[in-house]
Amino acid sequence: VVTEVSEKVAALRTARDGDDLEAIKSASEALSTSLSKIGEAMMKDQQAGAGEATTEGASAEGAAPEAGATDAEFTEKPEGEAQ
Questions:
Q1: I need a surface site. Which of 13, 24, 47, 75 has the fewest CB within 10 A?
Q2: Can you say whether the dihedral through the CA atoms of 71, 76, 77, 83 is positive or negative?
Q3: pLDDT band per the 50, 70, 90 thresholds, residue 60
């Protein structure tokens, strides 16, 4: 895929140096399509990794708490009372 993107970038640079607007648009769209493929692959990898982490890190109550998360309690003071 990296080679494909490199080729599309080179084609776009060549088209950009010319004055054929349609060639520039076509090369730009081809590059965009190739970049979309990379984005899709990255999302699939990320989703697969997130699914594995949730499954492996699950506790008895459900999903594991986020790192750095702290349970806290608070009480509301009636209106007019100083904070």
A1: 75
A2: positive
A3: very low
Cα distances (angstroms) measured from residue 77 to each of 47, 50, 74, 82 = 43, 40, 10, 8
Which is more confident, 22 or 69? 22
Interatomic CA distance for residues 25 and 1, integer angstroms: 21
* Polymer length in residues for the chain: 83
How confident is residue 53, by pLDDT bands cut at 50, 70 and 90? low
Phi/psi for 26 (5° steps) reads: -60, -45
Q: Do 12 and 27 meet the contact criterion of CB atoms below 8 Å apart?
A: yes
Continuous H helices in 1-83: 2-17, 21-57
How many Å apart are CA 10 and CA 73, to the nearest integer? 59
